[in-house]
Design brief:
- There is one protein chain.
- The chain has a three-stranded parallel β-sheet with strand order 1-2-3, with helices on both faces.
- It has helices at 3-7, 19-26, 40-43, 57-62, 68-77, 81-98; strands spanning 13-16, 31-35, 50-54.
- The chain contains six helices and three strands, in the order αβαβαβααα.
- The termini are far apart.
- It is α/β, with parallel strands linked by helices.
- The chain is 51% helix and 14% strand.
């Protein structure tokens, strides 16, 4: 199954900051992107139904891009399950309201 076909058949995508979110957005699929040590405002998928979950900005600002394996993991660990689930709940409510 192609990515386009997949993304047109799911309600939304929760994903790590990578290219798949941009493919999903291009297919019109709502996204929730988890950002570790990159700037979400610079790299989030461009669409109305894009939500982000990110650690505090100080982690991103102070993270050395050459230490992504260690620093990025620290920033990612600052994202809690509760933070992600809050966005999932918001997305579900948004999509349900759109379909009413």
């Amino acid at each position: 199954m192609s990515c386009l076909l997949f993304f047109t058949n799911v309600d939304f995508l929760v994903h790590f900051d990578n290219g798949m979110g941009h493919f999903a957005a291009a297919a019109g699929c709502p996204t929730i992107t988890l950002f570790s040590n990159s700037n979400p405002m610079q790299f989030k998928p461009i669409q109305d139904n894009a939500m982000i979950v990110s650690c505090n900005y100080d982690c991103v600002k102070n993270c050395n891009k050459y230490l992504r394996k260690t620093c990025g993991k620290k920033c990612l660990n600052n994202i809690s399950v509760e933070m992600v689930m809050e966005k999932v709940d918001m997305m579900i409510k948004k999509l349900m309201n759109r379909n009413v």
